[in-house]
Amino acid sequence: MYTCWNGMNGRYTMGVPLIKFDSYMAVEQAETPLDIVFVSAEVAPWSKTGGLGDVVGSLPIALAARGHRVMVVAPRYINGKSDALYAGAFDTGCRVPLDMGACGTQEVAFFHQHSDGVDWVFVDHPSYHRPGNPYQDENGVFGDNQFRYALLSLAACEAPLQLNIGGFRSGSPPGFPYGDKVVFVANDWHAGLVPSYIAGKYRRAGVYKDARCIFAIHNLSHQGVEPAATFSNFGLPEDWYDPLSWEYPSWASINGPAVNILKGALVASDRIVTVSQGYAWEITTPEGGWGLHGVLQARQHVLNGITNGVDTAEWDPQTDAHTPAPFCANDLRGKADCKAALQRELGFKVNHEVPLVGWIGRLDHQKGPDLALEAVPGLAARGCEFVMLGSGDAEYENAMRAAEAEHPASFRGWVGFSVPVAHRIIAGCDILLMPSRFEPCGLNQLFAMRYGTIPIAHATGGLRDTIQDYSPYASEPSGKGTGWTFSPPDPGSMLRAVDAALETRWHRPEEWQAIMRNGMTADLSWNRAALQYEQIFNWALMDAPVRAY
Ligand code: ADP
């Protein structure tokens, strides 16, 4: 709480700094209900490769619960595996021809499902019908992703104008479109052309004059950079090239001018938000800005960090359908059962005394799977069992298989993407390792904390923000922290943090349990984050649009 002398009335005024959200009180319903349109390449449970899908599957529900009318626009991926998930989404019959410049006119269809208070809208186009995950198949990344996501962005601009999906906000008549006074939340580079279309195309034609665009960064390292000639595929006015213009960095294998969709979003959106306060700062530095720190510094006055929440319905140790026994902070007996079942499933001897360590994530350099694998012998020497679950880079997948063959008594490498297995690892382990080199927010440490699994993580981005380092000197159990962080990200410093954790587990078990309970009782809900997003929306609406024409 800040105090400041108010010379007008001769009193002290107390308040919180506007930029800091933690002290805001939760209210049941938003004072000013808004029409909000999320645009994303992923939305769980329909499509998910990582945290983006989780966020876009949860945050809109939390906002709708506060009285906002919320639409989410994502592709309708038909890949032969998860098609049944779309069974509840019906064809609206609406067909819209989109002007994709040199790629011609492309017709899209819209499917719609209303559930959990949210209008889930799926854009249908032949380019979303293919095997693989949203971005790639076993042959690598799709070559037409720039086109597929430019199409998504333009379709999302049409959805609030064209779809008569009505008013689910009380008082709005059914059977009407959302209209053009909406707040867009465009997520990551895939939706990064939304601010450009709104400002460069629609607003010039008198549409979306009262709309605002928020751009949400979940991972700055992917920016949608392609040769400059591809600008003509967007259907944007020629003089809009400048906001998107970019040069390939010196280390890239090609030289010359490029278009950078994410850079265009940073300059054309009204506000920018990223998924933790720590990452909001890191991306303004040369070390964390991936070449865009200068652009971000210039817009720092509209840049905020909001820590992601947890879907507390999906990740609840008391009701989790994927785990064998329920438990909670007041009764941890079920956690021991989850650990025993996991040890059995992995082919380890059931032994509660043996520390069980987990790692879950995309097998990508960012997440430090190589650092985790280097620590396998060190963890074995400390008497730990270690399980890694991940898919991605074939080099790491093979390294996991090789490590399992070399250390059969202490290591399991589960290659693949499995939500049930992720739940069982989160519930059954004692410790979750997260040696990510950078981490915008990170969700697994939040899931782990809810399940009394203690995170040990590199002190970066959202990991540093969300894990309170254990302090043996704090007088109250609640002050003792929720885990351990380490730096730099190398196996040595990670194993030193593991040593500190194991020392606490062996010699001060009551403190270990206090750390578990601190994580389990922390407020990690989306409701907290929804309030903060709401404030960003209101700030955006207070200011004139950044590109007003
Ligand atoms: P990122 O978005 O960078 O991949 P996050 O920590 O924000 O990282 O979110 C990752 C999400 O994907 C979490 O829900 C995590 O449990 C899930 N996940 C990652 N890899 C796997 C896997 N192999 N199997 C199941 N879930 C996974």
UniProtKB/TrEMBL annotation:
Q: Where in the cell is it found?
A: Plastid, Chloroplast; Plastid, Amyloplast
**What InterPro entries does this protein's entry cite?**
Glyco_trans_1, GS/SS, Starch_synth_cat_dom
State whether keyword Glycosyltransferase applies.
yes
Cross-referenced CDD domains: GT5_Glycogen_synthase_DULL1-like (cd03791)
Pathway field: Glycan biosynthesis; starch biosynthesis
Starch synthase catalytic domain spans which residues? 36-297
* Biological processes annotated in GO: amylopectin biosynthetic process; starch biosynthetic process
**According to its UniProt record, where is this protein mainly located?**
plastid
Q: Which GO terms describe its cellular component?
A: amyloplast; chloroplast
Question: Which catalytic reaction applies to this protein?
Answer: [(1->4)-alpha-D-glucosyl](n) + ADP-alpha-D-glucose = [(1->4)-alpha-D-glucosyl](n+1) + ADP + H(+)
- The EC number on file is 2.4.1.-
Residues forming the Glycosyl transferase family domain are 351-509
Protein known as? Starch synthase, chloroplastic/amyloplastic
- Organism of origin: Coccomyxa subellipsoidea (strain C-169) (Green microalga)
Its lineage reads:
Eukaryota, Viridiplantae, Chlorophyta, core chlorophytes, Trebouxiophyceae
